Amino acid sequence: xxxxxxxxxxxxxxxxxxxxxxxxxxxxxxxxxxxxxxxxxxxxxxxxxxxxxxxxxxxxxxxxxxxxxxxxxxxxxxxxxxxxxxxxxxxxxxxxxxxxxxxxxxxxxxxxxxxxxxxxxxxxxxxxxxxxxxxxxxxxxxxxxxxxxxxxxxxxxxxxxxxxxxxxxxxxxxxxxxxxxxxxxxxxxxxxxxxxxxxxxxxxxxxxxxxxxxxxxxxxxxxxxxxxxxxxxxxxxxxxxxxxxxxxxxxxxxxxxxxxxxxxxxxxxxxxxxxxxxxxxxxxxxxxxxxxxxxxxxxxxxxxxxxxxxxxxxxxxxxxxxxxxxxxxxxxxxxxxxxxxxxxxxxxxxxxxxxxxxxxxxxxxxxxxxxxxxxxxxxxxxxxxxxxxxxxxxxxxxxxxxxxxxxxx
Length: 409
Ligand SMILES: [Zn+2]
Fold this sequence. Notes:
Elements: H1 62-72, H2 75-89, E1 98-101, H3 106-117, E2 123-128, H4 135-146, E3 151-155, H5 159-173, H6 178-195, E4 199-202, E5 227-228, E6 235-236, E7 239-240, E8 260-261, H7 262-267, E9 271-274, H8 275-278, H9 283-294, H10 318-329, H11 333-343, H12 349-359, H13 368-375, H14 379-388, E10 395-398, E11 401-404
Parallel strand pairs: 1-2, 2-3, 4-9, 5-8
Antiparallel strand pairs: 6-7, 10-11
Helix pairs in contact: 3-9, 11-12
Zinc ion (ZN) binds at residues 27, 29-30, 32, 60-61, 63-64.
């Protein structure tokens, strides 16, 4: 599979890969580093260069500033705004009036159930299936409907196509979840158009995860994030769509992955809103809500790479999303979880630092075999791709072992 890999041989090796900031800093308040990506994969580009977490001059990340801002928001006024929004879209003819995308994890269970039970909406929940369901993920997904009392459309992408795309995204971008993220993002607008539903309600604004503070001032997702132009060409897994035929992927296979056009979104009257704008968003509270109302169960065991048991449970290969982030950006699953929990006031920074040192970057060995089988990669191909994506400003080899050069303290 040499042809799949990018040529990394140059006369002077670059000091920094992936377009990351050369100087590593950690937020003084939470534990997040400035290497963290803040944007979704860009379909119009070949490489996976991305914007990174926004930090203030004072060394505090924007997500921490946003957490401060949340404490000053008049949440009662925000709920009144929500009521006015829902009144605009609520239907009296029995049709669906809101689409809620999600996996049936704690967050989408919370959003959909609250919309139905507290606000009298008629939600249609839509799910882009995980690569391979875990047992606990499938039970939680089923309980969402059986206990929560909701309607759901489950979309499962052709695993032969999705497996090849995942493999390309891993080898070319070290971002095996890129096809999943693209598909998941484009599914809800496609379904809303087909069912004539105008309102889509997401859970949290990505500002919770280090987008710029200015993006939190609106409840709406910008159409730039979910529309394209008719006939526009895209890159999948770092390969231009016209070149995907070499990998057995043809135009009809791309249908689920393509965004709707701006004209379609406008004529369908689509609006995508974030629930986190209207309700104070605390993942731990969503978890308690989902347990009580939607039969949600935590993982019986700790997820590899972190200390938590209730987030991101449904996909056997989830661990590789976080592990590749750890390799590329030097920050993994435990750091993400701990930073969020500091901001929500659940743990102290000292506790978080200890958790990051203990769990961040733990290899997800439990489902390694599943990951290799799903993508068709060999172990050698896997480790070669891992090692060629270690940026020299983050990693060095000492006594034959890879060492992370900057640790939060
Ligand atoms: Zn921070």
